[in-house]
Amino acid sequence: MNSLSFQSSLIVFLLLAPPGAYAQQGGHLTSSEQDRLRDAQDPSERIKVYLSIAQTRLDRAEGLQDVSPEARANVGGQVGELLGQYISIDGELKDWIQYQYNHNGDMRSGLRQLLTEAPRQLQQLQHIQNSPGPGAREYSDSLHDAIANLNDTIDGAAQALAAQEKKFPETKQEAKGEARAVKKEQKAEAKRNKEEEKLNKKEKKLRERRHKNDAAGDSGEN
Questions:
Q1: pTM given for the model
Q2: Spatial contact of 14 and 78, defined as CB atoms under 8 Å apart
Q3: 131-151 pLDDT, tens digit each
C-alpha cells in the first residue's frame, strides 16, 4: 500500500478483486480464520478480525522464545514461519484497507482500533528483535520485514483515518451526538443512584429509630 500512495497498478487490481478474495489466499490462514474473515463483511469488522488473527501469530512467536533446551533445534524455523504468516496477514489487511478506501467504505472504527493495537504489536516485534532467541538468524530477515511492513500499515491507517473523518462529517456529528447522549444518560444514572442512596440512608435511620423506640418501650414495660 506504501502509505496509501495508490499506485495505478494496485488500484486496478483492487477494483477487479471481489471483497472476499483476500480471505482465500495461501496457507497462512486456517479454515476457521478464513470463515471469520468471510463473515466479517463490514469494513471495520474485518480490520478487527485481521488484527486478532495477526495477534495470535505474534503471541506464538514470542512464546517460542522461552522453549525448553531440547526443543530449541526447530525454534528458529517455527518463528520464521509464524512471522511469514504475520507478514501475509498484514499484507491482506493493507489490501482490504486500500480496497475499502477506494470504494468509500467507512472504516473509521476499525482504523481507530488498528492505531491502538498495531503499536503494541510493533513493540512485541521489537522485543523479539532486541531479545533474540534460539535460531534467531533463521528469522532475522522475516522479523525485519514484519517491522517495516507494520510501520507502513500504521502510517497508511493514520492517513486513511484522517481522510475518512473529513469524508464522513455527518456521521462524525452523529457520533458526537451519541456520545453526548451517553454522557447525559450516565449523569442521569448517577443522579438516580445518589437519590436512591439518600433514600436508603433515610430508611435506615427510620428503622434504627423505630428499633430504639421499641427497645425503650420493652424496657419501660419491664
A1: 0.66
A2: no
A3: 887 788 999 999 999 999 999
